[in-house]
Every structure is written in structure tokens, then in C-alpha cells.
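To the team - iron/sulfur cluster complex, inputs and output below.
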Amino acid sequence: MDNLNKKRIYIALLLLSVFFFALIWAGVRYVQKLDDPVITNRIFSTFSIILFIAIIIFVIAIGILIVSLINEKSYSKTNKMIKGVIDFLFPLSLFIGKLLGIEKDKIKGSYVNVCNQVVKTKKFDLKPEEILILTPHCLQNAKCPHKITINEDNCKQCGLCPIGDLLKIKKEIGIQLVVATGGTLARKAIIEKKPKAIVAVACERDLTSGIQDVKQLPVLGVLNQRPNGPCYNTQVDLEKVKEAINFFLGGKYEQYVSKTDSTSNSI
Ligand code: SF4
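Output:
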């Protein structure tokens, strides 16, 4: 149930969005009854049927989503439909949330949690090199002189920012890592690196647009922390990053760490 609580803002907004569609449908039906001319009636009938079918699909998708969140169970065959409905209703949910005075970041954070859950209903057993960690440039210490956006291996792992820890993970298990300065470079990195899954670290805004952009790949989003304000010396919970990687590795994170250890010891 706690699993559901973390996502409840977005689920509630999804349900309100469906209610909004249901109100429009009820309005159309009402006007339809008042109106006499056959042609107008036909247009209204078609619109009303399309709207009704859409509402049914929304209700089924959100219903399955809620059940899967409560049971923490996989209904992976319905994933595409659920994700499609979640994304389709996102602008309306955001609008309704704003009307209700809910902070944009809270809604987007909840959206990211819901999308993560949808990804987690599927099982993965990928190799480390098939996974890409995509991080924003603001994780790097602002005073660091090393050009890690050109090559993350330029990081000296001095311990002043999380980039060094992420590089350690990369070296430890052989995962791919890219530090991107924006959406365009992130997209370019995805095309070049051809990952089968992405662990994306970013703020609510960037994660939301990134998840919606990369529809063809599973993405697990990890929200960054901003103790110094937005886009400046940001932090990330490394345990959450490792958890996400471990999920895509099918729970074999530690196995890959010991494999690398034994290889380097034997050299
Ligand atoms: S950990 Fe790497 S990127 Fe961060 S400050 Fe040190 S050298 Fe620079």
C-alpha cells in the first residue's frame, strides 16, 4: 500500500482527468437529446461514441495500474496501453493539478514514480554494457576543471561530487555512463550508445520530458537532490541508482562486481 501512496498524486489526477472526459461526454449526450437536425445528431453520436470508448480504455488502464501498484504484480502485456494512457492524460492532469494548487514538481515527481512502477512490472536480465546511466552536468562540482561531458573518464574521482561515484560504478561493472549538458546531447548519446535500458538521473522537469521522449526504451528515473538550489552542485542517492541498475541486471549487480574484482585480481 505504501507503494501506492508515493504515486497517489498522479493517480488521483489521472482519475480526475477521466472524470473531466466523462463530464464532456455527459454534456455531449445532453446536447444530443436537445438537438433535432439529423446531421448534427450524427456528428454528436460519433463524438459521443469515440469519447465513450476512450473513457472505457482510460478506466481499464488506470484500474490495471492501481491493481498492479497495490499487488506489486506484473501485468506486462498491458504496459503499452497503461503508458499510453498515462502520457496522453499528462497535460490534462498537470492542468487540473495546477488548478488545485499542487506544485508542478510534485505532480511530475509522482508521474516519474508511476512510470518507474510501470517499467518495474516487467522482468529484465540485461548485461551491464546494455544499460546506460544518463546524468545531468549539474552533478559535477562547479569548481571542477575536468571536462567530463567530453569524456566522463576525465573525472579524477576526487570525492567532491557524485560523478566520481558513478564513474566507480561504471568501472566496477562495465556499465555505460554519459554526462549530458541537455536534452539534445542526451538523445545523441542514446543513439550512439544504443542501450537497451536507461537509468536517468535528473530533476522532475527533465525526467518527465526525457521519459516521454524515449518511448521505445525502458527508463527508470532517479530524482536528483538540490541542496544548493536548481542546477548547481546537485546530488543523487547512489543507492537508488544502484537499485535501478540492479533491477535491469535481473538482481545480478553483486555478481558483476565480484566478476570484475576476480578478473582484475588475476591480471
Ligand atoms: S569527482 Fe570528478 S567530476 Fe567531481 S569534482 Fe572530483 S574530479 Fe571533478
